[in-house]
Structures are given as structure tokens and as C-alpha cells.
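C-alpha cells incoming
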């Protein structure tokens, strides 16, 4: 089953980028397929600038400026992918999600970005997000190897 078929715009949580950029032994095969689908235009993608913040913490803490530049360049220039800022609409939606579902602020901001941008699917590995009814949420850990693309 191709979970991306019915979705014109998908949202990617921070963990998908980290799995892909750091070559995660289990999840990289799925992130590669997801990002290939976005790259080819099968669907478009959106990621919050909050994700960029989260992605850069480890390389910054290790003093890896080249990695910081590489990751920033990849997110800024990925085809068919929007790196969306935290603005007033996102902030208000995030506050609503945080109040309703007791989410952490970064999680609420990432989900709010997806909702405000009109994504129909959020890909993550955070099982707590499955309670959010405003957007369809799929965890990579719930997928079998045959379910993706």
C-alpha cells in the first residue's frame, strides 16, 4: 500500500530528517522513499523551521560548522519542500493544540505548521501525536516494510 498516494502535501517531523541525515539503520530506507517521493513531485512536503532548530542542536554542540551548513543547505534547497516559519497563524494553532492535547511546545509548533499549511498527512515517530484529530498522523514505527512507497 502506498501511503502517500492520496496526499498532495505531507508534513515531516524533525525525526524523519534526523533519521535521513544521520543514516539511521532502521528508518533511513523509509525516509529515503518519502524524500524521493517529494523530490520527484509525487507529493510536496512541508517542515517547520522549528525542525531546523532541532536538527542543528547536535552538530552545533559538537562544533561541526560544516555539518550545520550542510544540513541548513539541504533543508533550504530540497525540491518541492517548504521550510515554513513560525508565524502568528502557526503560533495560534500551536497554542490550541498544546491546550487541547497537552503537547510540548516544539511538537505543537511542528504540528501547527502542518495544519496551517494544509498538509493532509504528518509523518513522525512520536506516538503521542496520533491523538491529534486535526491531521492524519502516521508513525514510521507502525509501518511494515511493504507499506510505504
Amino acid at each position: 500500500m502506498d501511503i502517500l498516494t492520496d496526499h498532495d502535501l505531507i508534513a515531516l517531523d524533525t525525526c524523519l530528517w534526523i533519521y535521513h541525515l544521520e543514516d539511521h539503520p532502521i528508518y533511513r530506507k523509509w525516509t529515503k522513499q518519502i524524500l524521493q517521493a517529494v523530490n520527484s513531485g509525487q507529493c510536496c512536503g512541508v517542515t517547520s523551521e522549528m525542525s531546523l532548530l532541532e536538527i542543528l542542536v547536535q552538530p552545533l554542540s559538537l562544533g561541526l560548522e560544516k555539518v550545520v551548513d550542510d544540513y541548513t543547505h539541504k533543508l533550504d534547497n530540497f525540491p518541492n519542500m517548504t521550510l515554513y516559519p513560525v508565524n502568528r497563524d502557526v503560533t495560534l494553532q500551536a497554542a490550541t493544540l498544546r491546550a487541547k492535547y497537552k503537547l510540548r511546545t516544539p511538537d505543537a509548533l511542528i504540528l501547527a505548521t502542518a495544519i496551517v499549511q494544509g498538509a493532509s498527512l504528518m509523518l513522525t515517530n512520536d506516538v503521542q501525536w496520533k491523538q491529534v484529530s486535526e491531521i492524519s498522523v502516521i508513525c514510521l514505527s507502525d509501518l511494515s516494510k511493504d507499506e510505504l512507497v
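note: The two ends are 7 Å apart (CA to CA).
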